Amino acid sequence: MTIQITGSHSVAIGKNPERSREHNRRVVLDVVRRHGTLGRSHIARITQLTPQAVANIVDELVGDELLMETGRLKSGRGQPPVQFAVNPKGGITIGVEFAADHMVTAVLDLAGSLQAKRLIPLKETAPDHILAAFAAEISALKQSSKAKLLGIGVVMPGPFDVDGMTSVGPTTLPGWAGIDAAAALGEACGHSVVLENDATAAAVGERLFGAGLAISNFCMIYFGVGVGLGIIQDGTPYRGAFGNAGEIGHVMVAPKGRSCPSCGQRGCLEGYASLYALKQKLEAAGIMETEFSDLEALHSSNNPVLMDWIDDAASYLGPMVAMLENILDPQTIILGGALPDAIIDGIIVRMSPLPTSVASRRQRELPRVLRGKTGQLIAALGAAALPLFDVVTPKLETSLAVSGIPD
Q1: What strands lie across the sheet with 102-109, from one edge to the other?
Q2: Which element (helix H / strand E) includes 404?
Q3: pLDDT digits (tens, 9 = 90+) for 9-45
Q4: DSSP 3-state assignment of 35?
């Protein structure tokens, strides 16, 4: 499977001072990545760097095996210019998603192509078990690839560092409260680790690989075991002051409603519109097999319990969509994650008509709500993309929680 990274994006402009050299390297890599192949003069025009600066940077990147020559462009008069492309063999990044009941891993090469993926059920999610499983998986992936490991991204369900909410309840990973997860994971595998909220990572993945490819401002409602929100603002993820922006699962949508086992409130969105809530509803009806393929089969047979949950979830998500539009004014809102596409499509259909909001414009380039394109792999893809695009693009140069043992 190869994930094409194309689409119309704004271009980051290079800086000519020597102190901006690392920024310039990323700008050049980003421009070449987007266009596929480019010559030095074309790179200079796009980035507004001097031809000499581009020549030096391109030579460096070729020497570092991050760029490669692809031959000369056939043109009219004169010597045809040498073309360059991102070298897919220049390195790999690994993304790992830990959910309450499974681990997903994804490996990307430098060109953004998916090299490997795996979903592993987790029966134990205590820190010791997670760290052992993580170390074993990273070791196995490194042995199966000869490429240089450029970074590891890990996503976990939030919120992070919140009294009474972190690592509490069935939609989180119990036992991690008070633990520096990035440092513990880094020590376990022997590499630095970038840690991110699962919904934010999913939005990054959707921005770089999926429905958000050419959309610079969108929200993503992410279905993990719980439900969260990733926010992409001007092409970059918005995390908030403490990395917990988008914790919509604990927005109260039904006053005096169902008790939330994670935060102690009543009527949280997560209690009605999450995968956890769906599985509870199915199990109460005696349906115990609720894995991804089981849910697909239930939907195909129009199972009344599942259809009732879709109606219920849509009734709460519709007003949430309108609220997000009124607060954040995104171009669109994307739904995706660990639910089959058919179920997400069903939710979107049943949300119609959406409540009036600032998004209720007659002329729209995009629908108010879209389904994501990358399915249940999206958070792991986003996790792998975080270190990858920290290397090859200046767009994600926001502060990240990075710790562990340096490479």
Answers
A1: 114-121, 102-109, 92-98, 149-156, 192-197, 401-404
A2: strand 401-404
A3: 444 555 544 447 778 888 888 888 878 899 999 999 9
A4: helix
